[in-house]
Amino acid sequence: MGGKAIEINMWLLNYVTKNSITESSAEKGSIKSVDGATVQVDASSDFKRIPVVVPYGVYYVPPVGEESVVISVGGEDFCLGTLGKEANLSSGELMLRSAGGASIVLKNDGHVYINGVMY
């Protein structure tokens, strides 16, 4: 991981912990197992069968072993998702990528790349 992805992820984690919840209720851990829409995260404690929070219309199952952020709100635990990886993108561009390597990239110039082929 490096560059802008780390900066954005750190900014988001810092913003959430400072403005929405107490620092002690947010922590980083590793996805240990996946069961449908819930995950088990190994952090300071073992978070079992907690839901993954994603934007509306986006559905995914995080891969085992990925680093994630867990928050506790109102006595319930949630996985915010996995930490971003380095991607060769400019500010404002978007990439969807599967663990198997399939990808869709939306570029600022209007081009769309599917598995590396421009459309």
Descriptive account of the structure:
With 119 residues, the chain is mainly beta. It has 2 domains: 3-82, Gp5 N-terminal domain (OB fold (Dihydrolipoamide Acetyltransferase, E2P), Beta Barrel); 90-119, no CATH class. It has 1 helix and 9 strands. It has one helix at 3-19, and strands at 26-35, 38-42, 46-51, 67-73, 76-82, 94-97, 103-106, 112-114, 117-118. The strands form 2 sheets. Strands 3-2-1-4-5 form a 5-stranded antiparallel sheet, with no helix packed on it. Strands 6-7-8-9 form a 4-stranded antiparallel sheet, with no helix packed on it. A hairpin with a 3-residue loop joins strand 2 (38-42) and strand 3. The longest helix has 17 residues, at 3-19. The radius of gyration is 16 Å and the shape is globular.
Secondary structure layout:
Layout: H1 3-19, E1 26-35, E2 38-42, E3 46-51, E4 67-73, E5 76-82, E6 94-97, E7 103-106, E8 112-114, E9 117-118
Antiparallel strand pairs: 1-2, 1-4, 2-3, 4-5, 6-7, 7-8, 8-9
